[in-house]
Amino acid sequence: MDWQALQLSLLLAALTSAILLPLGLLLARGLAHQQFTGKYLIEALIVLPLVLPPTVLGYFLLTAMDQNALMGQWFYQLTGSQLAFSFNGLLLASLIYSLPFAVQPMLRALEQIPYGLREAAWCSGLSRWKTFLKIELPLAWPGIVTGLVLSFCHTLGEFGVVLMIGGNIAGETRTLSIAIYDSVLAFDYAAAQQMSIILLLIALVTVTLVYRFNRRLMQF
Amino acid sequence: MLSVDIKNQTPIPLDVQFNCAPGQLLALVGPSGAGKTSVLRAIAGLLHCRQGQIICNKAIWQDSVAGINLSPQQRRVGMVFQDYALFPHLSVADNLRLALPASTKNDPARIDELLQQVNLHGLAARYPGQLSGGQQQRVALARALAREPQVLLLDEPFSAVDKVTRRKLYLELHSLRRQLTMPIVLVTHDLDEAAMLADEMCVIHQGSSLQQGPVDAVLHRPATLAVARQVDARNLFSGKLSQQQDNLYLQWHGQQLTIANANQINTGETVHWIISPSKVLLHQRRRPSHGEQENPLSGVISDMITLRGITTVLLDIVDADNAILQMDVPEHVVSRNTLKIGETIGVSLLSEAIHLMPDNRDAGI
């Protein structure tokens, strides 16, 4: 059992969800109830990681993170360290990879709020920001929690992208799913089973909680 | 005073002008899709009109020439939406609190007072989902009033409740009105509702305001044929205006009717005319009625329909090419005079009650 990998996986998933909460909300808010040219393109780009093979996404990210590429160079100048094969690179990849899992439920939840409620809030004197805080956020809460949990679980279980851009560096980029793969390759089935059960339990518990929580929240 | 003068092309063409005095209730009437709700949204600042001016109590809310367009938050309107748009996750009290101005935000007495005003005391802790349609409407009204608005806008507020509740809410709004001092604009497609609640009426058709005036004037003295059609004028006919010596006559299917007022229409012209069914005078069987000599006609009763104590009698005027004239009489008059289908009776069209409209078919409809 690779405790370090579990710790790394949990940290990566928690950070990804924490960053995706404001980022996803911002994107969802910008897209809900809005019509503008290019909206479909933005929606498609957000959903793209869902349908793209992780290796393809990983390949493009890896080339972008190269120190000679624009993004890798920029990051190197800024921090003095490289993105590829580092925890930071893994975090960036996870943000992109898990973005649709955060944005989609948030967007659906915001879109389900009747537009008339926003107008009623404005007519009651509430600014757009206060309308978002006091009306939209509480009403979209189940969708926001769902997005948060799904992106957490999804990051926890990601494999292909991590392997492509993170490699397998203990304490830096070796996540639990990589550790499982390693154990199987080394015929250490006991460890693989242990870690798989841990991931299964985490996924089961969180998803069950989301369902239960949502049902309770949906009742007004 | 609220004065509105707006023009718009998209998304819905609008060309609407009207005024509403403080404490006055103005009904915007017209068929579905006429643009009534859009007008209300424009006043609230939810719909931006390209051209026009909206002035409320000398404050300019919108002026396309000066480039002024205040946001809904800056306009201080109280709006009751058609589906009420109550915030489902907030209690009744919190729904109201959200709309209270900062000075009274934390004053529970103010919330009690508002709930008292709309007969909802004791329901402050409930959630909108736990209320009946009528109660929800009252909360929406209280929330609109909570903001201490300078204009109260009501968008078909009675359309989502059953008939019994609706009658109750009519009476409540009628008595609540006496406490309100701001202009009130009510959007409705129901003429009876407008007639019951409003002081003035503004007829809107295909995005244009056709006529504004006191309810009685618009209903019984429409300015044009288009307005007459919109207010569902029942005895709507056309004829020709003529003059003999000092007297004006209306030539109608070979009948010559005396009229009191030509409504600035030249003699010899084709005119449209209406007479309210309640102003057709029945010649009583036993004793002569006052005014019997005025424009007497005889007709055969072709049908009778009674609703809430008023009987509408359909008269086939044989001498006027079988034109059908409608007459409203109280039910007891029908039984006292033993009116029956197929019988011939005499009626008079009082010249004062005949209202003429110019023949400008091209304008309007």
What does this protein structure show overall?
The complex is a heterodimer of chains A (about 220) and B (about 375). With about 220 residues, chain A is mainly alpha-helical. Chain A is built from 10 helices and no strands. Chain A has helices spanning about 5-30, 40-50, 55-65, 70-80, 85-110, 115-125, 130-155, 160-165, 175-185, 190-220. Chain A is globular. Chain A starts with a helix and ends with a helix. With about 375 residues, chain B is an alpha+beta fold. In chain B, a hairpin with a 4-residue loop joins strand 5 and strand 6 (about 70). The model of chain B has no long low-confidence stretch (mean pLDDT about 90). The interface of A and B includes residues 114, 116, 123, 126 and 135 of A.
Count the beta strands of chain A. Answer: 0
Biggest sheet descriptor of chain B: 6 strands, mixed
Rg of chain A, alpha carbons: 20 Å
Mean pLDDT across the residues of chain A is: 90
The helix-and-strand class of chain A reads mainly alpha
Rough shape of chain A? globular
Fraction in beta strands of chain A:
under 5%
Please summarize the sheet with the most strands of chain A.
Answer: none
Number of helices of chain B: 10
Return residue spans of chain A where pLDDT drops below 50 for at least 5 consecutive residues: none
Rg of chain B from C-alpha positions? Answer: 25 Å
**End-to-end CA span of chain B:** 31 Å
State the distance separating the first and last CA atoms of chain A. 45 Å
Tell me the strand percentage band of chain B.
Answer: 25-35%
Q: Any idea what the shape of chain B is? A: globular
The quaternary organization reads as heterodimer
Task: Summarize the SSE layout with pairings.
The complex is a heterodimer of chains A (220) and B (365).
Chain A: H1 3-31, H2 39-51, H3 54-65, H4 70-79, H5 87-112, H6 115-123, H7 128-157, H8 160-165, H9 176-185, H10 189-218
Helix pairs in contact in A: 1-5, 1-7, 1-9, 2-5, 5-7, 6-7, 7-10, 9-10
Chain B: E1 2-8, E2 14-20, E3 25-29, H1 36-44, E4 51-56, E5 59-63, E6 68-69, H2 72-75, E7 77-80, H3 92-99, H4 108-117, H5 133-146, E8 151-155, H6 163-177, E9 184-188, H7 191-197, E10 200-205, E11 208-214, H8 215-220, H9 225-230, E12 236-244, E13 247-252, E14 255-258, E15 270-274, E16 280-282, E17 296-307, E18 310-317, E19 323-330, H10 331-336, E20 344-349, E21 355-358
Parallel strand pairs in B: 3-9, 3-10, 7-8, 8-9
Antiparallel strand pairs in B: 1-2, 1-4, 4-5, 5-6, 10-11, 12-13, 12-15, 13-14, 15-21, 16-20, 17-18, 17-20, 18-19
